[in-house]
Design goal:
This protein is α+β, with helices and mostly antiparallel strands. It is built from 15 helices and 22 strands. It folds into 3 domains: about 100 residues, Rossmann fold (3-Layer(aba) Sandwich); about 70 residues, ATP-grasp fold, A domain (Dna Ligase, domain 1), CATH 3.30.1490; about 240 residues, ATP-grasp fold, B domain (D-amino Acid Aminotransferase, Chain A, domain 1, 2-Layer Sandwich), CATH 3.30.470.20. The structure holds adenosine-5'-diphosphate (ADP).
Amino acid sequence: MFKKILIANRGEIALRVIRTCKEMGIKTVAVYSQADVNAMHVRMADESVCIGPAESSKSYLSIPSIISACEITGSEAVHPGYGFLSENASFAEILGDHGIKFIGPSVSHINTMGDKINAKTQMEAFNVPCVPGSNGEVKDIDDAYISAKKIGFPVLLKAAAGGGGIGMKIVQGIDQLETLFLQAKSEAKKSFNDDTIYMEKYLEKPRHIEIQVFGDGKGKAVHLGERDCSLQRRHQKVLEETPSPGVNPREIKNIGKICANAISRMKYEGAGTIEFLYENNEFFFIEMNTRLQVEHPITEAVFGIDLVKEQICVAYGIDMSLSQEHLEPKGHAIECRINAEKLPNFSPSPGNIKEFHSPGGIGIRMDSAIYNGFRVPPYYDSLIGKLIVHADSRSMALGRLSRALDELIIDGVYTTVDLFKDILDQADFKNGDYNIHWLEQWLSDQVK
Ligand code: ADP
């Protein structure tokens, strides 16, 4: 087994990876920016290396600094967590060139899935159902008119290199097409330095259902059920649950099988997530993420497994321990993303944590790297913790979540904790009756 792994990340995910490494007897190396000198991941790792100033571009995204940190510490492998360099094919390639194992899929799989047009083409070839859309890139406005006519309004313009909902434009009718096409192109250029745009049918009331997959890189592959991530704001996930209250288990088994087959045929290595929109009992592929997702703990809860441990073992070349016939989900799990943000605008709320008390008891998991006196820096994502509950049934999980939210104390910064208490009180949510627009609609009703 690896003797030493470097974690190229910060916050709760760095800590989460360190936890598994410790349990496996693997030494850990934390990297940190000058703003994170006092961060928990630095305190918990066996060694740590400062890799630059606060700005991510000069620290957590600096490939040369991270490679140097690996060499100085003799790290054999790198776990990238999520975000930052986790889906950066050059990073994986350069690590390989230095004889350091990237814990994740191959460079070519990261590349293919990183371009959403290529990803769709690849998935279509494996009979994965996709959202109806343009045939590849929409090159110019004439092309946009032709595609929109074929697909039918409303349509959605999306950036091929996209992420985080950036560059996405809903086009309701032909008169808006030119303006929004040009806007989407310029946003994509600015954010991703790639202005390739494609078009999809805009689905009006779908759920976001994603399938966790795992492969050994040699053709063995499994799926680990779904996560319902329909509760979103600005195309960003807020709360996730499994199983989905809106899809029946038979449909999940069918789509899961299709996904596992695609992963097997690709010879995909490690953890991945195949994302779908689900409407009128049909699944439509939108993208594949080639990394561990923020919301992976709900899958771990219902399957009773440690996905990071599986990632590390497969990366080392140990035979995959997961097999489909032994994977049966148990109970219900829900995750709330606790962000340091001030409502109603969800503006970032960095600052000093004056008091932090984590909920406990049966079926509670709190993944967080904050502590009393910790200063939430203004430079990074506002996620400061994830509260995960697991219980025998959805109604018991809702009761457990409500109890845990009451127990959770975070003082000193504004957080999204109270938002979850309010969501839990809504009949639609209690009934599992929501789609990707429900939260935005409900939030805008609150402001009126
Ligand atoms: P990103 O990588 O930018 O997050 P995704 O393709 O994963 O983009 O989509 C993010 C979210 O945007 C989805 O969960 C969904 O809410 C919305 N979305 C994406 N494609 C469509 C579509 N064709 N119709 C309706 N909503 C969509």
